[in-house]
Structure formats: C-alpha cells, structure tokens
Amino acid sequence: MFRNYIKVSIRNLIKQKLYSVINIGGLAVGIACFIMILIFVRHEFSYDRFYKDSDRIYRVYQRQEGNVFLGSDYFAVTPVRLATVMMDELPEVTYATTIMQSYALLGFGEKNFWEQCVLADERFFDVFAYPFVSGDPASALKDPKSVVLTMSLAKKIFGDQEPLGETLKYQNGELYKVTGIIYDPPVTASIRFSSIVNIHALSKYVDEINRTTWRNNSFYTFFKLAQGASPAVLEQKFPALLKKYRDPEAYKDYPFRDHYFVQEISRLHLQSGINMDIGLKGNSVYVYLFSAIAFIVLLLACINYMNLAVARSVNRSREIGLRKVIGALRSQLVRQFLGESVFVAFLSLLLALALVYLLLPVFGRLIERPLGLNPFENKFLLPGLFALVAVVGLFSGSYPALFMSSMSPIQVLKGKADAKLSGLRIQRWLIVGQFAVSILLIISSLTIWRQLRFMQDKEPGYNKDNIVTVRIRDWSLRSKYETMRNEWLQDPDIIAVTASTALPTNITSSTIINDDPGGSREDDLAIYECGADYDFLNVFGIELAAGRNLSPDIASDSLTDYLINEAAAKALGWTPEEAIGKQFKEYGKDYTIIGVVRDFHMHSMHLPIQPLRIGWEKYWATYLSFKIRPGHIPESIAYMEKILRKYSPYPFEYEFLEDNYNQLYKSEMKLGEIFGFFTILSILIASMGLFGLAAFTAGQRTKEIGIRKVMGASVKNIVILLSRDFLGLITLSFIITIPIAWYLMNKWLQDFAYRIDMEWWMFGIAGLLVILVANLTISYQSIRAAMMNPVDSLRME
What pTM was estimated for this model as a whole? Predict the structure, then answer.
C-alpha cells in the first residue's frame, strides 16, 4: 500500500508540473529561510557555552541608580579589588579574576604586531579553562611580566620556532616572557583576543590593587560559582561589601545608589543596555524578531501548499470517490494525502539544502556572522531536518487531507463536488493572510529605510566630510603633538589638525557640575565632557552661538575656561548670551564659561542632545583629526602616515569621520537589509501561490469564458472578471494590516529621540506595490485564458 501511495504521488507531481514546481519551490524557499535563520539563532545562543563549567561562570555588573549615561544607568565595570575580596569573603565564589580588554603592540626582533589582547591576573585560567598547547595554566600568569599567546599569533610571530620561553617587547617598552600557548578562542567567544598579558602591565591596576579601599570602577570581574551555590544569595551579600570597602573620602558626596548583580556568561553576548560592556555583542530583540520571521516565512510556504492542494482536489475528486466506493476507509485516504504532503516536503528539503549551501555565506556576510551548515558538528542537525520535514508535511497536508477524505462518494461521482469546492472560503482567508504579512513587511522595510535616510540626511551639527581621524595608541605621541602638527600642516591639502579626547560622533565621558556652590545636590548637573585643543571647532565646523573659542594666546583658556553647548546653558537656566562669563563648580574648583557652541548630535539619534562642556586638553588626547582639502585625500593620508611613522612604531590606522558616523546606525542598516530580503521572499512566495491559484481558477472557468466571449465579452472584460476576486482579497489584506503596521512601527520608532512620522502615503505605496505585483501575477493567466479561441474552450470537457 505504501508503495502504491508513492507511485500515485509521483504520477500526480509529473501530471501537474506547474503545481508541482510551485509547491516544491515555495516550500523549498520557506524551508531554506527557516534553516538559515535557525542556524543564525543557534549561533547567537551558543556564545560562551564552550567553556568548561560555563553554567558556573558569571560576571559582576552594577546599576548606579540615578546616573543615567547614554540612556542607561547600568555599568559593566567594577572596582579592581572586587575579585580578590569575593574570593576571600564569599564562600559562593571558588575563583575570581580581574580583566581588561585592549590592544597591544608586541615586538619581536625588528617586527611589530598590533594585536587584540586581554590583560588579566593570575587566576584567569582558573575561571576560563582554555586548553593549553604548551605551558602550565596554573603558573602561566604568575610572573608580572608574562604573556600567553594563541596558536595563530605564535605561528605569526615565531613561525616554526618554539615560542615558549621567548621574550616579546610589550608596548614598545619592557620585555615580557612567553609562558604559554593556548588554542584560539572559538568564533562563539564573546571576549576575543590573540594574547593574554599579565594585568600588572597597567599602572592603574597596580595602584588600585595595593589600596585597601575602593575608589573607582574601571575593570571587569568574572568568577566561578561554587558547586550548588545560589547566585541570588550571592547578590544579597554585595551591599555589605560596598559598605565595608568603599573609600569614605572618595564616596563622601556620592549622589547615586549602587546595586551589584551577577550574570551567567552565556547571557553576555545578547545582553544590551549596559554601559562600557565587554565582548562582541548581539541583539536579543533582533534574534527573536528574526525567529518570528523564520516561522512566518515557513508558514506562508505551508499556506501555499494548502491553498493549491485544496484547489487541486477538484481534479482528484473522482479518484477519491472511486477509492471510497471500492472500500477505502477515510483513515487510509488521510494517510495517503498526508504521505503525499510529506513526500513533497522531503523533495522541498533537498532543494532547500541546496539553496542554503549557496545562500548561507551571503546571509552570513549580511549579518556579519561566520555561519556554516555542517551535520558532523551538530548531532541534532539531521534528526532536526527530518523532524522539520515531518512537521511541515503533516501541517501543510492536514487540512487538504481531512477535507478531501470527507467527500461523499455519491456526490463526487454525480459531479456535485465541484460546486462545494468552488465556494470554499478557506482559500480566500489563506490568501488574505499571506498578503497581509507581505504588506506588513513592506511597510516595515519602508519605515526603517525612511528613518535611516532621515538620520543620515539630518544635519548633525558638525561637518563630517573630508575629515580623517586617527586613534592615538602610542601615549608617547602626546608629548610630540605640536611638532607633528606643524609638520602635517606643511602639506597644503591638510587645512587643519586637532587633538581631542573624543570625536563629535560619540562623546562618552561625563562628570557632574554645580552652578550654585552654596546650593543642594538637587542643583547638580550631569554633563558630558570633551577635551580638545583650540582647532576642534574649526576642524569639525561646529558653530558658536555666543562668546568666543578657546585660544592658545590666553593662559586661562587652558586652565579654568570652558565652552558649553546650548543644551547645557538651557539646563543651567541661561540663554547662550547670558551664560558668557558665568561660573560653575567642579570638584570644588571654579570654572568660567567663555563660549556657547550650537547643539550637535554627539551620540546617535536614539538619544536626545545632552549638556556638554569642552575644555582645553591635548596631552591626554585619544584622537587626531585632519580636515583635508577634497581632491588629494590619498596623497594627504600617505603624508600623514609618513610623519607619524617617524615618531612611533605603532601601526597607522585611520578612518573617515563619515564612516564613523554611519557606524552609529549599523544595526539599523542591517535590520533594513534583512527586512528587505525577507520582504522580497514573502512577496515571491505569496505570488507563487497566487499564480498557481489563478491558473487553476482560469482552468475551472474555461467554458464560462468561452460562453462570455461568444456573447460579446472583450478580453478586457474577461481579465477584469478573473482578477476582481483576487484583488478584492488583497484589498482586504491591506485594510487588516494598516492598524497592525502602524502600531508596530510606531513602537519601533519610539526608540529614537529624533524620528520620522508615519504618513499615509507609506501605507499607500505598500498597498499599490502589492496590488501591482498581484495584478502582474494574475494577469498572465487571465490574459492567456481570455485570448483562447471560444470554439476550443467550448469543446473542452
């Protein structure tokens, strides 16, 4: 019997080639999308689970209640001595380590290597049990001047030479001994590095670790929880530690309330909203959103199968009647049609796997993840795929199987089943559902695209064209800045140079000022700060609203004079003109406002413009910025590099400010691209189903079309007749989708302080586009049927 079912399935597929191609192709596209997104979702949830006892590895983070910074009052950094104190006083902690992520210049002989590194104390490998190729994890970081390399970096530096015991020059200074070689971190490691340097290389760490009290938060604390210990119980002990170890002098006037929390490392990758966080970040909202899209696309493909299977049941009604007359049970018919559906799903899976093999690298580049389909790496992959075939096949074939098996054999053989099928309502609602999803995705894509264009076109308040920025990695360059600046300005195409602690695209440092020294803490103002020299406004084209710029000829400008922005003046209760000459206090010292600059977007447009102060600072600068005359940018960059290499062995790395600005909206750009990709797929799947259904409808109404043509109907009349019902259903889809799309997109836009408004024409474009695509899909079959010779139509049985 099973063999007979397979034969019948194959014969039906061959007999009705158009429907077979649409069914298998539609399901294949849906399954391929589902598999690719599932691979992506699994990849995102697999981060940091490769560690031994990963369920016991946690990190500490804190909330500084009231200290809102970049839209959040959560911070990942902790005091230096927290790890030591936790090990000494909390029995729930077996090991704890203090780390910092950075870049390091490692020199060997005449060669220098600029590499990502982790600075860590000697307990690092007790918490993160990386397997060693050579060396002893228990003693690898005991020596304050020790460094551990990954295999790839060891090969890169030493080639075939044995690296263990060799010395490397760290940051162009002291020699560090190679004490271990470990395997490279896997791609699912949040904390990326190619070397681990003993944290004693940081003087700031050495100063703080020797203190008995805590003064600041600058490092990351990870620990291994004791077997059977409760993270919740551990969190309850932090308030006592804070009270015991905080420096009373440093925290005497501290205005915020701190709360410490712990978090399992497997949640680190998808955790967002924590300032100064560590590790490669994903986005949990987008992961869940893409998961929903995967199920929706698969559902659309299954709906296509249902739709066409029910439509085709007219042609198979006599087969069903005959089977019932000769004794077939309803259960046998259900099994037959479900078997056919599973068989089609299996063929679709084979095609889907081919599509995944071709498209997965493209999809991986789009979302910037190293995705792969390897059944040998995941023992659940093959069983999962077969389970997917079974679920898709049974779900897609369930309604057609139950519907067709319920037909009365007498009505079927008398030819009365056609009327019953032609009035079937389920097909209409399935079409409405399919196109409702397509319209929703179109509106979403259009909204995301418009918001991106708005953010990119809106004037940020500074000039971002023809500006090249260089991150200062070599601290010794700060003392040589004036010399280098004078040499750079000898190039006629370099208009101006400035040094600053931040770029205007992303100012993250903040402090607290008080304009009323005799007032209460309620008068305090949280304000962002940027240090720069006097050419900062000139290079970035930032305008003054009142007062004057910083000047190298006025001694007080480098000591007690500041610029503020309009937002700061407003927060302090002044107009820009009123602010000039006013003073405020910071850490007990008086400062004078000499100028007010126009507000500019110093963060992404997710956040409103905040108060800002700009003060003279070049010796602690982090960035060099060059304003270059257009036309000779490559030559000017080459000249910049030539001068810089005279004074530093560090690599020359530059970036255009415009690219830096675009990075602020990178996740939105990716979201827009992915939404556009799935919008096209959803329209394609829906159109394939509509094409097949239109072909079936035209075939069922062949005689009617012939009679109408004999009675004088034109081709136009016939096309309108056949298209009217379908276009009516699409219009209904549009009406249903409008409030849903409006609600969802308005909710998404609430995340931006500066945003577009949802306008009626956006919905109109989406509706017109879907109607146009549907009309083109239907028209081919409608025109083909309308152009047939009525004599041939009336001869058909």
Answer: 0.83
